[in-house]
Amino acid sequence: MRSRQDRGAVRPPTFEVPGTVVDALVAVGLAYLAVDATRDPPGPAYGGPVWVVWLVGAAVGLPLAVRRRWPLPVLGFVVLAAATATAIGAVGTGVIWVTYAPVALALYTAATVTGHLGATVALAGGLAAPATTIVWLYDRTGIVTADAPGSEVPLWWAFDLGLVTVLVTVAWTVGRLVRWRRSVQAGVARQLARDAVAAERLRIARELHDIVGHSMSLIAVKATVANHIAAQRPDETRAALVTIERTSRAALTEIRRLLDVLRAEDDPAVELGPSPGTADLSDLADRLRSAGLRVDLRLDGVDDLPQAVDLTVYRIVQESLTNVVKHANASHCRVAVRARDGDVRVEVLDDGRAHRSSARQPGGQGLIGMRERVTMYGGTLTTGPRQEGGFQVVADIPYVAVEESA
Questions:
Q1: From the CB of residue 26, how many other CB atoms can be counted at a distance below 10 Å?
Q2: Domain 278-398 in CATH 3.30.565.10
């Protein structure tokens, strides 16, 4: 009886709210807060028409719904709207920071997507607007009430301007930290991709070592035999066979010496044995069937594939099925390998999840290895979700058929 781990844990479906919906809700909420703070502030209320207050709230809040798509234009518009509202007094005295909260959010978004110069200019604009308009508003209206009797620090400096400055600066700082963190993560991802490519190329080099080593050994043996039985042949034939023998042996020695340098000192000993190929795909499918995955395998015209291409096909199918078992939570997988007219096509299709794991995305290390193998032969690799559901890996590999001597 298979254990529950073998069957694969069934994950409950998750519901993800789109980012645009979240931005729209935040935009509406901040717009309403700006209106409410202006209509009922702790200081003197705005005495103009009510529609102006609603217009200001919409102008400073609603553009945030598209802040991810147009971060800099949204920031410029929101800063201009907040500065204009402050200049005409359509803000809540004592809580002007509520009107500038959308500015802080827009500045955060801009700081995460712009370079150093652009972010610095954005911060300067985000600070200059409240510093100018808040001071002008309180000077124009004559509201210089201090918190304590005899204090010379006016309310606009002690609270409104100070809080707006802190809010905008903190938002910008957090945005820059987020941008730095993303750049570090992107650098790590690029390094992992480069390491994966290097590791896969090293693995390919070792496998080619086995293939070329076997072929060169066979050439050396044939050349040696021919050299010994060619006593009655012309001297030119003997000289040619001697050259073949020496060249093949020397090349074999150099290949082994060169590729041994690529091995890491802590590499385990390489198992001696024939390289796997399409003939071993049936055993691979049987092992996965025993784990609960239904695998349909179809092979067509693969008997005459060159050894290196045969190994590449096996590795692509092996890696694809490994991804299916690890990440797809699939119940059925179809594998088809068809070779004809100097081209072999590999298709691995499953009915599992196509987007839940980053390892199944084009940047995954397994797919990097497959792409390296296919590119080595000038082929193409296509990966991605299927329209009918599931994930697909399709590889087309050209090859030169090996002609047998008569």
A1: 16
A2: yes
